[in-house]
Design brief:
- Residues 576-630 form the PAC domain.
- It is an enzyme of class 2 (transferase).
- Residues 313-366 form the HAMP domain.
- One of its GO terms (molecular function) is diguanylate cyclase activity.
- The protein is of the alpha+beta class.
- Among the domains are: 94-185, PAS domain (Beta-Lactamase), CATH 3.30.450; 382-485, 2-Layer Sandwich (Beta-Lactamase), CATH 3.30.450.20; 496-615, 2-Layer Sandwich (Beta-Lactamase), CATH 3.30.450.20; 623-793, GAF domain (Beta-Lactamase, 2-Layer Sandwich), CATH 3.30.450.40; 800-973, Alpha-Beta Plaits, CATH 3.30.70.
- The chain contains 29 helices and 33 strands.
- A hairpin with a 5-residue loop joins strand 10 and strand 11 (271-278).
- Helix 19 (619-639) packs antiparallel against helix 20 (644-658), helix 20 (644-658) packs antiparallel against helix 24 (768-799) and helix 27 (849-866) runs antiparallel to helix 28 (892-911).
Length: 974
């Protein structure tokens, strides 16, 4: 029987309490919200009223102060400046103005320009002769010349606090002669009575405050007069008032009482009016209202609780009766019957639902019995032996296949354990029983292969599977067993293992990589030879996707082959073969070029299973092809007449493209073969190349400098520790270089032209292939340099004078033609000068032709130094030279003046003494000869219109030159 429900845990009690909680929460929330809003509304209304009062008082005080200021200024302006020297006249003036004594309860006085009182009323106060410059009002009036209200002080004569107002007395020029000052006694004045004598509730009070001095001037609380306000920072509300705030606020005053305060500033002076009243007095009606609302809320809470309890008890009585009926029915061993429905409300609906549930349970019971019969028929139809045991390892069921396999009727072993089966050996029975108990203890399932004797006496290999189950979680369950004869399958598997071992032996010892790919593009097998090819193990590659196993450009190729193979297999067509060259990444970060061949794989039904592929390393073949292509491109550049620097740069960049892990450079020596003239290394930093320019080669000058000096290959595996690199260790580290090997570049005559260097970013030992590479690169650079030098030599022989390196007659004709073409295009003049050396033949006759050659070389140098780079100097032969100047002025006289200036510069330069050092013969010292030689020069102008008569231009210059010689030499003739 169910236990009786306690009142505290009954549904009525919980619903009542829940309803009360909701009601009380809503009611009290409304109460507190209403009281809060009432307080805010009253505070806003009281604040407005209080601020109106202080504003009225502030205007009244402003009016009184302005009245007194105006009175003082009016009288001060009427005082005759002459009267300032007559104290009696001033005293008479004050006595005749009784209004001043009415307005100023503390008396009126007149001071001179030094602030000393010279007249006063009433005279009994004894202020005459006293200096008042220490009072702010008098000091400001005299010094700044305007009316000033002073700071409240305690007057010793009146024994009361006073305020002074002083107005300046001026002469016609505006000079301050003195002041007219009025004193207001704060406890005797009339205009502050509204402030000091007005009651403000029981706890309220008014204050007149000097904001700058933080001083109370007047108050309804007399004990606060002339009392300072709290210091800055103690009470923020007071600080706001002092800083200029106007309005109302609630704060805690210095006495610790919450007050409602309103402040208003005066306009006549920097004072303020403050009114304060305690919050308790101001909000007393609100507190009373809140008390009444709380009492009403308590009363409504009690009433709501009682009504809820009564209503629930009445409405839930039928539900309680139904529960008791159900409890009684559950104790009877009979099928539950539907309950009667007395009223169609929520409780009636609940009883109807319960009756429907009873009907459903009965139907489920019938269905379950059908399922059990179906399950029994199902397991009997299965060909494999099946058994069921309970939690105590006792047989509870089996199928027909189990009976036939072991030759025992189920009725003979149901209710027994395996220990009771006589057809099994005792050791086997004990092993089975121990395994069953262990499985029931830990739960789960087991699968094992065992040898088991069937009733025909044949020992078979079976797959013995067992699985525990729970009928009721944690309470009832058992174990389901399945025995599958796998003897025939085991024989097939053994045969397959032998064949697989044969195939695996073949695949694992093949040089090429053999692999299979399923229809989804996943690796299912990779032969171990992949470790030699890419550095990855078979297991690592089988975890890779195609995107990881191939470079990006190779992925679409394999995927396309996979899709085409799938489509061909689906259409019943032959699967196409793929043969492609693909680049694959290696584990060390490098790449390898491979040739990939694939064929489709299908099962017996023609279903596409995937691809079988063979990957072959073609790196060496690819490298040879790439090098042949690179070598051919360089030869094409040489054959096409490309200049040397682009060819050498192409060699460097080509080697780097073939070997991305390396950085190359070519160092070319100068004509002496002792210094670096140029450095072709586009992949090295600029600062590194700049540091090598002009560097002297020698032992220990890096790899390239040493190789160029010794003529032998230099290999440095670790730049950081090798002595050859000691002077450049920091430079190499900044450039990120770790190793360097260098090969000297030799000409066909074994002259050292430079050095070819290969750098590695890390410490590195070059292989035989690396050495072969640098030898080939240096040989290719040598061919390029020698061919370019030969072409340059041929070009110089054809177009240059062999002694002076100046253009010869052939090149002069080209340059003159260009100058004429430019003149025709621009309209500017050009000039041609033909000059012949004076006194040249005696030098040849006296010192020989070698000395004459030295003079001609020096003349060529001086001529080049005297003209622009765009102009031309040529040697016609012997001691005759030609100078072509272009881009002169379009106006002929101006162009002639420009040409004559250049000619004069040349004549002067050639007329300077020549110091010629003659090379010694064997056994004799070198000698220096000083020679004086001038020139005779013929000059002619030309324009583009003369383009068809170059010969005539030269002839004109030649005629002019001969006339220059005839006129006395060392001259210029036009």
């Amino acid at each position: 029987m169910p236990s009786k429900i306690r009142p505290a845990g009954s549904l009525k009690t919980r619903i009542t309490l829940f309803t009360l909680v909701i009601f009380m929460t809503s009611l009290w929330s409304l109460t507190f919200y209403a009281s809060h809003m009432l307080r805010e509304d009253m505070q806003r209304q009281l604040s407005d009223q209080q601020f109106s009062v202080v504003s009225f008082i502030a205007r009244a005080i402003d009016a009184h102060l302005n009245e007194r200021i105006k009175a003082l200024e009016t009288i001060a302006n009427s005082i005759d400046p002459q009267a300032m020297e007559q104290p009696a006249a001033l005293q008479h003036l004050l006595n005749s103005r009784p209004l001043l004594q009415t307005l100023f309860s503390g008396g009126v006085l007149i001071t001179d320009s030094r602030g000393t009182a010279i007249a006063e009323v009433p005279p009994s106060l004894g202020r005459i002769g006293v200096n008042f410059m220490d009072r702010k009002a008098v000091a400001v009036a005299l010094q700044e010349g305007h009316t000033q209200i002073g700071t409240p002080v305690l007057d010793k004569r009146l024994a009361v606090p006073v305020i002074g107002i002083a107005a300046p007395i001026r002469d016609a020029t505006g000079r301050n002669l003195g002041t007219l000052a009025g004193v207001i006694a704060l406890r005797k004045t009339g205009f502050l009575d509204e402030l000091t004598q007005s009651a403000y509730g029981k706890t309220g009070s008014y204050f007149l405050v000097d904001r700058q001095e933080r001083l109370i001037i007047a108050s309804t609380k007399t004990e606060r007069i002339l009392q300072p306000l709290r210091p800055q920072g103690q009470i923020p509300a007071i600080d706001r008032f002092v800083n200029g705030f106007e309005g109302s606020q609630v704060y805690i005053n210095p006495a610790g009482v919450e007050v409602l305060n309103s402040v208003k500033r005066l306009t006549a002076v920097d004072w303020g009016i403050s009114a304060s009243i305690s919050a308790a007095e101001a909000f007393a009606p609100i507190l009373a209202m809140q008390h009444r609302m709380v009492m009403a809320a308590l009363l409504l809470t009690v009433l709501a609780g009682a009504l809820t309890w009564w209503l629930l008890r009445r409405e839930l009585s039928r539900l309680s009766d139904t529960a008791q009926t159900l409890a009684h029915m559950s104790s009877l061993a009979q099928t539950p019957q539907p309950l009667p429905v007395e009223r169609h409300d929520e409780i009636g609906l609940l009883i109807q639902s319960f009756n429907h549930l009873l009907s459903g349970i009965a139907q489920q019971k019938s269905d379950l019995e059908k399922q059990l019969r179906l399950f029994s028929a199902f397991i009997d139809a299965l060909p494999n032996p099946i058994f069921i045991k309970d939690t105590h390892t006792v047989f509870t069921a089996c199928n027909r296949a189990y009976e036939e396999a072991f030759g025992i009727a189920r009725a003979d072993f149901i209710g027994k354990t395996v220990l009771d089966l006589d057809f099994l050996p005792p050791a086997t029975r004990e092993a089975f029983q121990a395994a069953d108990r262990a499985l029931m203890a830990q739960g789960g399932q087991t699968t094992e292969e065992i040898d088991l004797a069937f009733c025909d006496g044949v020992m078979r290999t079976v797959l013995y599977q067992r699985c525990t189950f729970d009928l009721v979680p944690g309470q009832d369950g058992g174990m389901l067993g399945l025995i599958v004869d796998i003897s025939q399958r085991k024989q097939i598997e053994e045969a397959l293992k032998v064949r697989e071992a044969q195939y695996r032996l073949l695949a694992e010892n093949a040089h090429d990589v053999i692999w299979t790919l399923d229809a989804q593009g996943h690796f299912t097998y990779v032969s171990p030879s992949v470790a030699k090819l890419r550095g990855y193990t078979s297991a690592e590659v089988m975890q890779q996707s195609l995107q990881e196993a191939l470079m990006p450009e190779g992925v679409p190729v394999v995927l396309d082959a996979l899709h085409k193979s799938q489509a061909a297999a689906k259409a019943g067509l032959p699967i196409p073969e793929l043969r492609a060259e693909l680049e694959q990444p290696c584990k060390d970060g490098s790449t390898v070029w491979t040739e990939v061949t694939t064929n489709g794989v299908q099962n017996a039904d023609g279903e596409f299973l995937g691809l079988l592929g063979i990957t072959r390393d073609i790196s060496e073949r690819k490298e040879r092809d790439d090098y042949r292509h690179f070598h051919g491109r360089i030869l094409e550049m040489l054959a096409g007449g490309t200049k040397l620097d682009p060819i050498l740069q192409a060699i460097v960049l080509g080697i780097e493209a073939l070997h991305p892990d390396k950085v190359c450079s070519i160092l070319l020596l100068d004509d002496t073969g002792k210094r670096v003239a140029r450095c072709i290394a586009p992949s090295l930093p600029d600062f590194y190349n700049t540091a090598l320019h002009g560097l002297a080669v020698g032992m220990g000058m890096g790899s390239c400098g040493t190789a160029a000096f010794t003529g032998e290959r230099v290999v440095v595996e670790d730049i950081a520790t090798h002595p050859y690199w000691a002077p450049f260790k920091v430079l190499a580290a900044q450039a990120g270089l770790g190793a360097c090997w260098s090969q000297p570049i030799r000409s066909g005559s074994h002259q050292i032209l430079g050095a070819f260097g290969i750098y590695h970013r890390h410490k590195y030992h070059p292989s035989d292939a690396d050495i072969t590479l640098i030898e080939q690169a240096a040989r290719l650079a040598s061919i390029s340099i020698e061919k370019t030098m030969a072409e340059e030599q041929i070009r110089n022989l054809a177009y240059r004078d062999s002694l002076t390196r100046l253009p010869n007659r052939r090149l002069l004709d080209d340059r003159l033609a260009l100058a004429l073409t430019s003149s025709r295009r621009t309209g500017l003049h050009g000039a041609l000068m033909l000059l012949d050396l004076d006194n040249f033949k005696p030098l040849n006759d006296t010192h020989g032709h070698a000395t004459g050659d030295l003079l001609l070389i020096e003349v060529a140098r001086r001529l080049n130094a005297s003209i622009r780079e765009v102009d031309t100097v040529a040697r016609l032969g012997g001691d005759e030279f030609v100078v072509v100047i272009g881009d002169l002025d379009a106006d002929a006289p101006v162009a002639l003046a420009q040409a004559l200036a250049v000619a004069e510069k040349i004549r002067t330069a050639l007329a300077l003494p020549y110091l010629l050092t003659v090379a010694p013969e064997q056994g004799t010292p070198a000698t220096t000869i000083e020679h004086h030689c001038s020139c005779s020069m013929g000059l002619t102008l030309f324009t583009g219109q003369d383009a068809q008569r170059q010969t005539e231009i030269l002839k004109q210059a030649d005629d002019a030159m001969y006339r220059a010689k005839q006129s006395g030499r060392n001259t210029i003739h036009l």
